[in-house]
């Protein structure tokens, strides 16, 4: 057989590689972004109750209506704006599926999509699979801020979409109001679609405010917002997320969504709907994770790593340039196999694997795990 796959020269995800290496060498796994503590028992009980109450057949294609109503109310509470639960909100199999479907719905051969690197690794393959061309704008360590003059130069008549991510994985930075206003200005009067990846919207620190695309009326009119209950409620294995967009955009999205997923696990949706009745379940998350961040940084304050405290997400980037001249992939491998702690090398998210001597560590762990990790890092 002569096979010609559409996606070539794509290596196994770094998350899979480092987690497998951590498992093989029994290392503390601060690489892949998942909590090692339980979800709230109230949420687990709510999902179990939904199963026993008969929510075991297909959910509506757009998602359980109770959950879509709860999402709509959440936007109203947080951002004083909302999306219509029947026409502007769709529940998805995690945020990654939402992102893939948005790109598949709109990106055609030779369309250009602007992405900011370092970038989460699901954006670029989806663009290429649909014949699009990723246009990279580099974020330079350690601040990882956006050069909007460069973005303006990258916008052409072929620009179909701009993908933003705030709070930002992998850097832990956040976009500010000035960034969003500049993005709004640059896209005003165009047909450019904004894909705003906001999966860490509830994990933001130091009294910063999450600058959702829905807060800016002209942006909201052209934007998809993607979100993740897995990231929010410590259950990444459930793979339930959602996306929001104006009706016309959402109608186009659902035309594709219905054929690659159709609907998402129904009892989980109903359980989440009931759990969202108490806003503190998400309003208290920033404080919860800031305490985790501060604990981790306090534990490693005397180490040889340098850092700028994360502004959001549950990731902390550490600079190791004062420790070794190894490249970040080699150093991350060494730490995993020889020292017993796994991280993610940041170069894999950069164009041409630019090496800024940075490693990403996940602090969504128990305090005991963070202490054990810090004991290793302090001896490097």
Automatic annotation (TrEMBL):
Family matches, as InterPro entries: Aminotransferase_I/II_large (IPR004839), Kynurenine-oxoglutarate_AT (IPR051326), PyrdxlP-dep_Trfase (IPR015424), PyrdxlP-dep_Trfase_major (IPR015421), PyrdxlP-dep_Trfase_small (IPR015422)
Pfam families attached to this UniProt entry: Aminotran_1_2 (PF00155)
Needed cofactors: pyridoxal 5'-phosphate
Chain ranges of the Aminotransferase class I/classII large domain: 27-376
GO molecular function annotation: transaminase activity
Transmembrane segment boundaries: none
Keywords: Aminotransferase, Pyridoxal phosphate, Transferase
Gene3D superfamilies: Aspartate Aminotransferase, domain 1, Type I PLP-dependent aspartate aminotransferase-like (Major domain)
Keyword Transferase: yes
Highest taxon of the lineage: Bacteria
PANTHER family membership: FI04487P
Protein name per Swiss-Prot or TrEMBL: Methionine aminotransferase
Source organism of the structure: Psychroserpens algicola
């Amino acid at each position: 057989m002569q096979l010609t796959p559409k996606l070539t020269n794509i290596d196994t995800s770094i998350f899979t590689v480092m987690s497998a290496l951590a498992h093989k060498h029994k290392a503390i796994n601060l690489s892949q972004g998942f909590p090692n503590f339980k979800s709230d028992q109230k949420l687990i009980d709510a999902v179990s109750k939904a199963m026993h109450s008969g929510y075991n057949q297909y959910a509506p294609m757009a998602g359980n209506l109770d959950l879509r109503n709860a999402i709509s109310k959440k936007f109203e509470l947080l951002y004083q704006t909302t999306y219509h639960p029947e026409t502007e909100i769709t529940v998805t199999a995690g945020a990654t599926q939402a992102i893939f479907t948005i790109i598949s719905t709109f990106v055609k051969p030779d369309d250009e999509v602007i992405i900011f690197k370092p970038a989460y690794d699901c954006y670029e393959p989806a663009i290429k699979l649909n014949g699009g061309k990723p246009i990279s704008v580099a974020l330079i360590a350690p601040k990882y801020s956006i050069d909007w003059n460069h973005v303006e130069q990258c916008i052409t008549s072929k620009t179909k979409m701009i993908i933003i991510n705030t709070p930002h994985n992998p850097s832990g930075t956040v976009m500010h109001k000035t960034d969003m206003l500049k993005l709004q200005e640059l896209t005003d009067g165009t047909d450019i679609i904004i894909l705003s990846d906001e999966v860490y919207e509830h994990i933001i620190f130091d009294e910063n405010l999450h600058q959702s695309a829905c807060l800016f009326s002209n942006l909201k009119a052209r934007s998809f917002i993607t979100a993740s209950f897995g990231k929010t409620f410590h259950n990444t294995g459930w793979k339930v997320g959602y996306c929001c967009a104006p009706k016309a955009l959402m109608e186009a999205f659902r035309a594709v969504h219905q054929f690659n997923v159709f609907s998402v696990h129904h009892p989980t949706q109903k359980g989440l709907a009931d759990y969202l009745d108490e806003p503190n379940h998400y309003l208290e998350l920033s404080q919860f994770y800031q305490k985790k961040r501060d604990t981790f940084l306090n534990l490693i304050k005397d180490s040889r790593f340098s850092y700028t405290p994360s502004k959001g997400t549950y990731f902390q980037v550490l600079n190791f340039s004062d420790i070794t001249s190894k490249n970040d992939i080699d150093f991350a491998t060494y730490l995993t196999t020889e020292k017993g702690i796994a991280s993610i090398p940041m170069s894999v998210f950069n164009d041409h694997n630019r090496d800024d001597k940075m490693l990403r560590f996940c602090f969504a762990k128990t305090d005991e795990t963070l202490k054990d990790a810090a004991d290793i890092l302090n001896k490097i």
